[in-house]
Amino acid sequence: METQKITGQISFDSRSKYILVAASLTSIFKVFFLNCTNGQLYVGTRNLLPDGEMLPCVPNDLINLQNDSSDQRQDAMLLWLEEHAQR
């Protein structure tokens, strides 16, 4: 429900593959979206509401949705959480 509410304010396509995975409720409004198509995690910028501007949280070359040598998938959400835990 939160994904639909926020994406409606941002003017995403109703069939968008973005899902809201985290949001801050502090004075600095920050939201994180996972793109279910390409596995990238995005954070909204100050221009999120007026322009839909988001920045990727992980370099694209680190995302591995289909690894031929194993069955493991690594999307940006997993990589970001692993880095956050290490720090």
Written description of the protein model:
There is one protein chain. The protein has 87 residues and is of the alpha+beta class. The chain has one domain. It is built from 3 helices and 4 strands, in the order H-E-E-E-H-E-H. The chain has helices at 2-10, 48-51, 76-86, and strands at 18-23, 31-35, 41-44, 54-56. It has a 4-stranded antiparallel beta sheet with strand order 1-2-3-4. A hairpin with a 7-residue loop joins strand 1 and strand 2 (31-35). The termini are far apart.
How are the strands of the largest sheet arranged? 1-2-3-4
Order of helical and strand elements: HEEEHEH
Number of helices: 3
Rg (C-alpha, Å): 14 Å
Instruction: State the secondary-structure class.
Output: alpha+beta
Please give the alpha-carbon distance between the first and last residues.
32 Å
Which percent range describes the beta-strand content? Answer: 15-25%
Number of structurally distinct domains: 1
Q: Flag low-confidence runs.
A: none
Helix content: 25-40%
Query: What is the number of E strands?
Result: 4
Shape: globular
Largest sheet: 4 strands, antiparallel
Average pLDDT metric: 80
Salient structural properties:
four-stranded antiparallel beta sheet; globular; alpha+beta; 3 helices; 87 residues
